[in-house]
Write a structure and sequence with these properties.
Layout: H1 20-33, H2 41-56, H3 62-77
């Protein structure tokens, strides 16, 4: 029988012990079901440009954008006589 020492105070989440084979199966399952996102070079450039603009304050809040789009579509959907 294997002896395991568990610290009295755990930092972070709870501790769960499972056999290695089951752990490896879980990791493989997770890789298949939720693959890691790898952005392209163009996407990385776009993200960096967005971060720079955000730091400069070049952005509008979601509520304002939503309201402006809502107003735009309401005006354009009115019937003209």
């Amino acid at each position: 029988m294997t002896t395991i020492t568990i610290p009295k105070e755990l930092k972070g989440d709870d501790l769960i012990a499972i056999p290695r084979k089951e752990y490896e199966e879980l990791v493989e399952f997770k890789k298949k079901m939720a693959p890691t996102f790898k952005p392209t070079k163009a996407e990385l450039r776009t993200l960096e440009r967005g971060r720079i603009n955000f730091k400069k304050g070049n952005f509008i809040e979601w509520r304002r954008l939503r309201d402006e789009l809502d107003n735009h579509y309401r005006r354009s959907s009115r019937k003209t006589a």
